[in-house]
Every structure is written in structure tokens, then in C-alpha cells.
């Protein structure tokens, strides 16, 4: 009995330590994302999401490919802890429901009962659309730390799939260009480099 209680206490302690290591976006970046004249790079965005993944059981980050200029691209799965723990099974349910027309009625009913709704958001497809990707850490932090009962109930039934930046190359070009000229008379000028404004991955 004592061993069981010790195991439970150690588990609770580990969860507490994990939560304490989770930084808010403001703590991590040194400013609140969305603040006037402050931007972070694509690499810093992914660094934040990786930190959040290590410190939350509501987030799973997966690499999905490379950009035209070789930057790794990711998708973030955000949901309840149980859904993230069973993510592969939930993916398979949705795959079968979407692509397998031979599922019998009884099996289909069970899949519908056990499955979850998957919603995809692709942020900042065009390089000059800086807002969505800059907001990604705020969205992530809110969803993985919220104590709101209604929101958490939603996350029990929904898996939010977020592409934190659909255009890593363009994001860095815009951010680098803005930071280079910030505080000069050229601040806010149009970017005329390899891919002006619209750069698709």
C-alpha cells in the first residue's frame, strides 16, 4: 500500500515539475507576441512549440516535410491528454471512415462513437501574412493550459491540427527584412527578394 501511495505522489510531483517548466509566450520570447514592431523568426516559433510539447500532455508535434528552401515543416496536434495519448488510434478511425467504403454498419457506428472531430488550421500561407504565425504560440498556450471547463470539454471531442506556418521561407524573409530596417526610414518597405510576398511551400 505504501509503495502505491509513493508511486502516486511521485507521479503528481513529476506532473507539477513538468507544468512549471512550461513558459508562456511572453516569458519565452521576451515580449508578448503581437506587440507593435516585434516579430520572431520561424525557427524561434518551432523552438517554442518543441518546448511546449516537452512540458504538456495536450500537444504533439510532428514533422511533415520540408519547405522549398529546406526548412523542416510541422503540424501540431492539440487536444485533451487522453486524445493525444491515443492519437494514432484516432487517426486510423478517421482514415477508415473517410476512405474505406466497406466498413459494416456495426463497425462504422462504433468508430463514429469512439472517434473525434479533426479540425485543420493552416497559418500564414502567404509570407506577408505575419499575424497568424505570430499568434500560434498564444493559441497553443491558451489551449494547453486553460482551466475553462467548456474549452476543455471541447478538447475532449476535438483534435485541433495546426500548421504553425505554412510558409517558413517567406516568414523568415519578411521577419529578417523588417528587423534589418526597423527604426530606419525604410521600415515597412515592400520585400523584393527571391519570393516577394507570396511564397508557397
What does this structure look like?
By secondary structure, the protein is of the alpha+beta class. It has one domain. 52% of the residues lie in helices and 13% in strands. The protein contains nine helices and four strands. Strands 1-2-4-3 form a four-stranded mixed beta sheet. A hairpin with a 5-residue loop joins strand 1 and strand 2. Helix 5 packs across helix 6. It is elongated, with a radius of gyration of 20 Å.
In short:
With 201 residues, the chain is α+β, with helices and mostly antiparallel strands. It has helices at residues 2-20, 25-29, 42-54, 81-85, 87-99, 105-114, 130-145, 149-157, 168-181, and strands spanning 59-66, 72-78, 117-122, 158-163.
State the helical fraction.
40-55%
In percent terms, what proportion of residues is strand? 5-15%
Number of helices: 9
Global mean pLDDT: 87
Helix and strand topology:
Elements: H1 2-20, H2 25-29, H3 42-54, E1 59-66, E2 72-78, H4 81-85, H5 87-99, H6 105-114, E3 117-122, H7 130-145, H8 149-157, E4 158-163, H9 168-181
Parallel strand pairs: 3-4
Antiparallel strand pairs: 1-2, 2-4
Q: What would the keywords be for this entry?
A:
alpha+beta; 52% helix; 13% strand; 201 residues
Amino acid at each position: 500500500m505504501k509503495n502505491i501511495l509513493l508511486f502516486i505522489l511521485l507521479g503528481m510531483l513529476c506532473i507539477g515539475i513538468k507544468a512549471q517548466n512550461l513558459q508562456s509566450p511572453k516569458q519565452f520570447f521576451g515580449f508578448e507576441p503581437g506587440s507593435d514592431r516585434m516579430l520572431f523568426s520561424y525557427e524561434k516559433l518551432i523552438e517554442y512549440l518543441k518546448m511546449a510539447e516537452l512540458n504538456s500532455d495536450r500537444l504533439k508535434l510532428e514533422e511533415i516535410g520540408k519547405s522549398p528552401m529546406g526548412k523542416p515543416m510541422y503540424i501540431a496536434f492539440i487536444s485533451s491528454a487522453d486524445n493525444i495519448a491515443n492519437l494514432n488510434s484516432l487517426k486510423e478511425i478517421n482514415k477508415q471512415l473517410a476512405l474505406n467504403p466497406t466498413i459494416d454498419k456495426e463497425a462504422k457506428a462504433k468508430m463514429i462513437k469512439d472517434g473525434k472531430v479533426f479540425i485543420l488550421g493552416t497559418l500564414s500561407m502567404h509570407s506577408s501574412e505575419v499575424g497568424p504565425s505570430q499568434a500560434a504560440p498564444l493559441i497553443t498556450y491558451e489551449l494547453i493550459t486553460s482551466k475553462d471547463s467548456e474549452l476543455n470539454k471541447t478538447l475532449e471531442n476535438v483534435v485541433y491540427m495546426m500548421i504553425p506556418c505554412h510558409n517558413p521561407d517567406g516568414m523568415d524573409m519578411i521577419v529578417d527584412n523588417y528587423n534589418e530596417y526597423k527604426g530606419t526610414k525604410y521600415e515597412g518597405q515592400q520585400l523584393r527578394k527571391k519570393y516577394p510576398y507570396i511564397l508557397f511551400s
